[in-house]
Amino acid sequence: MRAVDLVVTDTRIWARGAATHWDVPPSVVLGSDGDLVVGEPLTPPTQVSSAVAFIAGERIALLPRVPAVSEAMTSVIGTVLRNLNVETPCDRVTVVCPTEWGARKRGVLDAAIRRFAGDVVFEDMAIRAVAVDEGTGRSRRTVVLEFGSLSTTATAVVRDHQGAHIESCEYEPSLALADLIPDSRGINELAALIGRLLAGQPADVVQTVGVSDPAKLDLIRAAVQPSGGPAIEVRPIAGADLVRGPQPQPGYRPDAAPALPATEWMQPLRQRAAAQQAPARRRNIYIAAGAAAVIVVTAAAIGVVIATGSDDNPAAVAATSTPVPATLRPTAEAKPSPSIAPNSSTETIGRVRFQIPPGWRTAQVADPGKPRVDLVPEDGSRMRITVTQTPVVTGTGYEQVAANLETQLRQKPNGTLTDLKRDQVFGGKSGLSYIEHPTDGSTVRWHVLVEHGMQVSTGCQYVDNWEAIAPPCELVASSLIVAP
What we know:
- Helices cover 20% and strands 29% of the residues.
- It has helices at 69-83, 103-113, 125-132, 185-198, 214-228, 267-275, 398-410, 466-479; strands at 3-8, 13-16, 21-24, 27-30, 36-38, 49-50, 90-97, 117-124, 141-147, 152-160, 163-172, 205-209, 233-237, 286-287, 308-309, 345-349, 352-356, 360-362, 372-377, 384-391, 421-426, 429-436, 443-451, 454-462, 481-482.
- Strand 16 and strand 17 form a beta hairpin.
- Helix 1 (69-83) packs across helix 2 and helix 4 crosses helix 5 (214-228).
């Protein structure tokens, strides 16, 4: 695909094509032959003018001629594409524009670009800034400051399961970066702007687009602290960092899930129980876990693996009269999980880290290289927590994951799995959920989180006593951290 990424401000345009990148002032000035010349420095008091700065108007006063804004923008875009060595018409141009732009301003730029491209896509600068900065990955609310030549835009961006989106936006047309000097009106106006934007809501990070001067950053930090608090982080982000270049557009093609090996997740408990029984009573009952729904890179795959059995004939387990050790009796006699304490240990699988609840431990797994870990209670209660993590195909979103999960669930035998539920909050995080009913009589509540290109599934397996496993399972889910 012949695609181009443009980041547009009233003082600079950053552009990237398939082979190269280029940046230039979006300026126009009359040449000796009366044609428009693009890219001259914006140095007053010359007649060089920013075409982007006049995008809300009709014409630009470049005497003796007064060219239309549409003509100026067409000249700017044409010059940019020629310097990228992009063959026109190209397939798509993605425009990262100032967040405060409305339909009129976007319409002028859209008309100019469509002379050179078949498709034009707009993206708010605040959304792009949050998306490309890994430092905002754990931020609940990020404030993005965009300083124009004469104005300032402040935007609050929040994240949820569907990604980053704008919560609120404030525009100050008479506040520029140059107005931010110590003990000035500009500092007070910026502080008031941030206060209106947040309206009492907390923020973790402030991004400053195109501002890297340490002195200016200190002034911005002083202005945002009254509303954001003293711990708020101020992060500069350059305009060039907003240019990602053309992204691949892979298809999302589900495939049959590869079978995971049967895992003897209760093996240590079974061995201990066997040692307590007479030689003739070495039969035990155990539950095997369900493997979480997964989507693999290049061929997204989701599957569930359930196993049940004993040391002898699996079919005879339910009918056996052999006494069951106390540690493996049904949940009615099982001890509840210990209360959650802040000094829990941690476990890491791949890019995922989480807490191990007190009174729980990591069980033995058949293949430690698999991106999965099982946790079991130390007291032998018939419960288990399973965490799996698998990358998803680049570009795959929340709805695609949900749709593929629904397809896979419908292919399972009736009564085995419940319908998928969206936007379910567990452990303080919103995601997908469904319930599995293995043939051994246990229940597995699955909670699926999609974050940073990773699908993380937490399975809470129990027998008749959800209240006992809910606190430790929720601790695991709430402590999950997915590294970008």
